[in-house]
Amino acid sequence: MALINADGQPATTQEAPKIEFPCPDYPIKVVGKGKDNYRQVVLDIFQVHAPGFDLEKIQVRDSSKGNFQSLTIYITATGIEQLEALHQELSAHELVHMVI
């Protein structure tokens, strides 16, 4: 079954916007278990894949019950390979619940 627009034409799939590299101030949100060393673990992983990110720009939010913490870290994204490696290492860590 094909999707049809309101004007009766076949719907087209919309492509994700293309990122131009290097991309300054690229946000990555990491949600994890708000344990003592969670923040340091995440920062250490970012330091490997995106050294020189601005510590002053990091946004920290605790969940309402305090079980989870989200960190939004802004990096200069240099390429898809960097982003994939960063996402893979973060996702593989036991303290990390989600990477957005």
UniProtKB/TrEMBL annotation:
Pfam families in UniProt: DUF493
Annotated SUPFAM superfamilies: YbeD/HP0495-like
Signal peptide bounds: none
| InterPro entries, alphabetized | UPF0250_YbeD-like, YbeD-like_sf
What protein family does this chain belong to? Belongs to the UPF0250 family.
HAMAP family documented for this protein: UPF0250
The protein in question is named UPF0250 protein WG929_00740
Q: Which organism is it from?
A: Oceanobacter antarcticus
